[in-house]
Amino acid sequence: ELKRVKSNVKATCQDILLITFFTVLVISYYFKGPSGGADMLMHLSKVRIIIDNFPRIPRWNPYWYFGIPFLRIYPVLFYYSLALLGWIISILFHNLPLNEIIFSAFAIYTPLLFSIGAISMYFLAREINLPRFGAVSSALLFITSFNLYSYWAIGSYPNVASILLSPLPLAIYIKGLKSRKLSYAPLTGLI
Asked: Could you tell me the maximum CA-CA distance found in the chain, to the nearest angstrom?
């Protein structure tokens, strides 16, 4: 039994490494930094506001649409996670200007997020009992979707980030249903 578990863990780690390598390779080829356009500027401006005002988060954004509630319109995880990465980079490289910090964070964040999305799809595929080949194929097909690339390229970052992360809570939810354990519910809701 222990031997089988070790073998499954080893196979899963190999699959994750393969998926991550392929994803980073492809995403690094397509996206070298933030794309152009107004959407990109608007979304990254929220990240800049979060970093500038940390630890206080403003409730109102006067720069969008003549003023809107700061984090009401788009999924907020993108802004918080990119701002956190930018904050870490600013600690490590305190001499960099803020715009370079945000662009550097974005260059790291993009392949990281797409890799998490591919791995999430892999776990979802495994949870619905696809074999290893099917799960790896699902992850790679998901991550090479033209819709993801095109929406990321026009600057619809929060929406694509939500799509990339959506397989993970679904996989956890299915695992919770299969195991009939309520302990998976808070984790599903958190993600």
From this structure: 63
Nearest-CA neighbor of 130 among 119, 140, 141, 138?
138
For the stretch 119-166, pLDDT in tens is 999 999 999 999 999 999 999 999 999 999 888 888 888 899 999 999
pTM: 0.87
What's the burial of 174, exposed, middle or buried (CB within 10 Å: 0-12/13-18/19+)?
middle
Task: Give 92-152 as a DSSP string.
Answer: HTTTS-HHHHHHHHHHHHHHHHHHHHHHHHHHHHHHTT--HHHHHHHHHHHHT-HHHHHHH
Looking at residue 77, its pLDDT comes to 85
The residue-averaged pLDDT of 1-15 equals: 88
Q: Which of 158, 159, 126, 149 is nearest to 28 (CA)?
A: 149
Is the distance from CB of 122 to CB of 135 less than 8 angstroms?
yes
Q: Residue 190's pLDDT is what?
A: 64
Nearest to 78 by CA among 42, 123, 109: 109
- Supply the angle between the helices 157-165 and 146-153 in degrees, to the nearest 10: 150
The answer to whether 8 and 124 are in contact (CB under 8 A) is no
- Over the Cα atoms of the chain, what is R_g? 19
Q: Are strands 60-61 and 68-69 parallel, antiparallel or unpaired?
A: antiparallel
